[in-house]
Model the fold of this input.
Amino acid sequence: MNEATIELTVNEAARREADAPHSLVARIAPPLTLESGRELSPLRIAYQTYGVLNADRSNAVLVCHALTGDQHVASVHPVTGKPGWWSTMIGPGRPIDTDRFFVICSNVLGGCMGTTGPASNNPATGEPYALDLPLVTIRDMVAAQAMLIDHLGIPDLFAVVGGSMGGMQVLEWAASYGDRVFAALPIATAAKHSAQNIAFHEVGRQAVTADPDWRGGRYLLEGAIPRKGLAVARMAAHITYLSEPALQTKFGRNLQDREARTFGFDADFQIESYLRHQGASFVERFDANSYLYVTRAMDYFDLAADHGGVLAKAFQGTKTRFCVVSFTSDWLFPTEDSRQIVHALNAAAANVSFVEIATDKGHDAFLLDVPELMATTRGFIDAAARVRGLATP
Amino acid sequence: MNEATIELTVNEAARREADAPHSLVARIAPPLTLESGRELSPLRIAYQTYGVLNADRSNAVLVCHALTGDQHVASVHPVTGKPGWWSTMIGPGRPIDTDRFFVICSNVLGGCMGTTGPASNNPATGEPYALDLPLVTIRDMVAAQAMLIDHLGIPDLFAVVGGSMGGMQVLEWAASYGDRVFAALPIATAAKHSAQNIAFHEVGRQAVTADPDWRGGRYLLEGAIPRKGLAVARMAAHITYLSEPALQTKFGRNLQDREARTFGFDADFQIESYLRHQGASFVERFDANSYLYVTRAMDYFDLAADHGGVLAKAFQGTKTRFCVVSFTSDWLFPTEDSRQIVHALNAAAANVSFVEIATDKGHDAFLLDVPELMATTRGFIDAAARVRGLATP
Done:
């Protein structure tokens, strides 16, 4: 671990909680009744906006972030200093054009970038919640976003867009608040989390909780960070975001800065040092307990189960326009998962288009500058804007 | 961890080392020069045999075990009490018929079931080697097996058979000692380890070494066991042994002994408790440092690289008969890996057949009672025995 590693101590957590100086923060007083039946109050939602809300408040696009994403969708990340995670997709002249649309992205409930999460202050104790934060679900995340949209005085959203866990939120928005969503773009996602995906998440959680520095979840109170466990969790997850052919092309069996194998346990292969780097850099920007909460939310997601076991019922009578996108080499959320969404939307007589994009970039493709994704998004958004009567730029 | 967990203390390691009472042990005095250039001596090889060696010593079949396998291929495992790991394949009347063949299976070099490995006594210090054991490779494992075969006075092998890492050893046998191998049956394997597979192994090694109870590898000396780290490593690996459809069929999103989700971090889903069980039971029978050594041996395997980058050269002039087997749902060693072996064997003008077996059981299929695998093996072995002039039963 290098010296520059950010020490997320109790003080740091408190600072984040108090200020989230990098983001706008909505403080919402009325309690949110969670899917578990428990109430959460007060609620903080940290968010970013891009572009300008038009006079009739009809050009708002909500972007939902993935597992380890955050609200810094198109602006520099305050911790890593890197460009926003979807700055290829969102910005002036981009497929989601901030010269036309008012883009909102909020940190999810349970997250660690300013929204109420396990590192937040528990008003009952004056200490970080840790595992005393009630479990949150995708539906709870979306309910919190709806509260934010209310708070901002926006009656309905022109579009809700997101990939992976973000796509789950898009589906949940369409199911729970369909009359407030004109267009929905779920990318590389599923209406339920598969057994294999739950399995990988469970490995990650076990890696975190096996780290003695996790301290039963109370590491912030005890001045520790379960770095090694969280890094292992990230490494395992990271493999699932890439495709085997892409790993083969990018790394193959190439050795790392060496003429030959060392016959030891150093990172001989480039893929090893790449993964170690992914693990080490992740712990600088992400909270271990948030990782537990947010993975759990994904595992619990099963939209059909919430509607009597029939996915089509989730979308019954919907007027939302959908575009469902998958990637050929995505083995975490394979095309079959998207096809099930499309079947259900068809059964609900929804307006839906479906694009499977050929790429070797695996699940991560949704985050990358994949031309066909950009073109698909631009085409869907532009057409929906015309139907909605939004002025062309 | 339950109370019955076997405490693999220094004493226990010493007992295993001294006795391996469950197995035959060959003590080999001449040093083995390893691929790294280092020498290893003395060498202990723990092994099991089944059936009877015939008068002209022509009916010996060497079975090579996989990463976490051992010599107890067709007899009860001394630690777990479970049947041998390939008792469906090997035994009286089985495809590899112990009424006809003399089957030998030895624990690999670097293993932890009696053969010299990191838990073995280092004669230079009188303590377990730990990380002072030189790194071993697949070629070294095979060289040690060849020493065992010499030790047993067996001039050549009727067949060498194995799946996964066992299949790598089969290929290495054919490449390094082709004139001593009449028939070779590599199953669900590859001539080189892929970037994705190295990545998963690296995650496992990081999980082990992140456990403070690993103690820089000196846990046996310090009376500790890195249980949690090794369990996480096993859990991650175990997912890769199964196919997504099989996980879906077997577990799906079924809940574990509960009417509903608990909104907590217990093992709500059956797949979670299944994985936890896999992790917990693995640490009762496997040594953490062995896991590092043996995964590393697999990562280093690249048979073409050892032959000027041309895989066919590894088999040039071979007289061995090959049957290469893969499974449709194996994503760890996909059919494409087997196809590359077959292409190389064809280019070397070898006698080779290739069977891709349709199954949803993933990589683990090679260990299971898959009828087409049994029939393929029986057919190949019987035909080879006829050609070799071995009496029918």
Q: What stands out?
A: Residues 92 and 98 of chain A are 5 Å apart (CA to CA). The longest strand of chain A covers residues 43-50. Residues 1-19 of chain A have pLDDT under 50 and may be disordered. Chain A has two domains: 10-197+302-388, 201-294.
